[in-house]
Amino acid sequence: LVDMYSKCGELESARHVFSHMGDRDVATWNAMIMGFCTNGHSRQAVDLFYQMQREDVEPNDVTMLGVLSACAHAGLVNEGRECFDSMCLERAIVPKVEHYGCMVDLLGRAGLLYEAFEFIEQMPLVPHTGVWGALLGACKIHGNVELAECTIKHLVELDHEDGGYLAIMCNIYADAGRWDDVSRLREVMRKKGVIKMPGRSSVEIDGEIHEFGAGDKVHPRHHEIYEMIDVIFVRLRRAGHYDTLDDAFVTVEVFEAIQQDKSSS
């Protein structure tokens, strides 16, 4: 019930069930900790972990994964470090690659990019794409092109068919105004046939689900949709906003889709 309510966003109901349970095992604590974490209450997730310790409930690897994730999202670097160190030194829990990934995410979000890189280099396990991907995402957030270029090499070696990471690298170059590098990397992707699976969105209107994506012409009312996009652009310009190429909110994929739509109309 705690897990179900949490996944449905009914955090108060989950908390009520948890609070009124007579016998709470580690799985129950884990469900509540993850519930707080996934619903944006990271600080409360960490506080619940401390309460769990006070009640002498022994955490397991799932507990630590939830706590580290909460620390990453809340920016609790010191608490995250302490929790990770305690896994080996106090609890005899062997960290898995997912725990290392959370630590990289934690350090990266806090801007400690080179510490995160060194952390990966010292891992006793082979880092997978999720670990390097966390560092690449942090490089994008903090605009570190040099470290991003080093990181993308590892990602390409691990999975040369996933265009998602290359698309992120393109956006990092774009955010830095390095458009020659953007064009070069996009050309490499085209020649190798590497593509990023386009994201899709859906919206419910009057009980009907409408699904669409950037550059999509499948929707039966796509002409009306693009006409509305043009209206929105006009209104934005009247309000003083212009869709400049160095705008960090305009991704390479969206810009290319817009240009393609305009040229084909």
Automatic annotation (TrEMBL):
The UniProt record lists the keyword ATP-binding: no
GO terms for biological process, alphabetical: RNA modification
UniProt protein name: Pentatricopeptide repeat-containing protein At2g01510, mitochondrial
InterPro entries the UniProt entry points to: E_motif, PPR_At4g14850-like_plant, PPR_rpt, TPR-like_helical_dom_sf
Pfam families: E_motif, PPR, PPR_2
Gene: PCMP-H37_1
GO molecular-function terms, A-Z: RNA binding
Domain of life of the source: Eukaryota
Sorted UniProt keywords: Repeat
Positions of PPR repeats: 25-59
